Predict the structure of MOB3C kinase.
Amino acid sequence: MALCLKQVFNKDKTFRPRKRFEPGTQRFELYKKAQASLKSGLDLKAVVQLPPGESINDWIAVHVVDFFNRINLIYGTMSEYCTEKSCPIMSGGLKYEYRWQDDSKYKKPTKLSAPQYMCMLMDWIEMLINNEDIFPTRIGVPFPRQFQQVCTKILTRLFRVFVHVYIHHFDSIINMGAEAHVNTCYKHFYYFIREFSLVDHRELEPLVRMPQ
């Protein structure tokens, strides 16, 4: 029998503090609308569609932050099974290896263990979503021209977390009773990135059959 979600996903195991939306802002209202649709049991393909009259960049921003929070929580719970010894390379099976590059400390694609890669990834995303020049929160401040490009890069790398967790730690997911929750989160993520063509289809190949 599956454990309740509070037991499965312990909030103390998150990599980073949750990024929250300020009450009273348009993005907070969008977030509430998205969550209400998600909890209503609607088809996930319908849930991700842009609500009439809403800004696509606001809609993407809300989902990028929400997916960061939820995937951070999933991996934080799995992290005790993902160690330097068990996962010396950040990969998705034998065919796919992911190297880290951030144009700062790692200017060239660098081979890292999965735990190292995850730490670098969560730090990097947290820095971006807290950057007012990229994810503006003040009313009337426009998104930068490269906003969707940045989000594509974030979502592409978050997808790799799913790849690693599913391929290398799926038994642990089942043992924790978290399979249904992780599957729902993945499908929501998958339908969202497909709805807005935010991740190259070649990146999806490791889990290409998962939504079915």
About this structure: The two ends are 23 Å apart (CA to CA). The helical segments are 5-8, 26-39, 44-47, 56-78, 114-129, 147-175, 179-195. Strands lie at 91-92, 96-97.
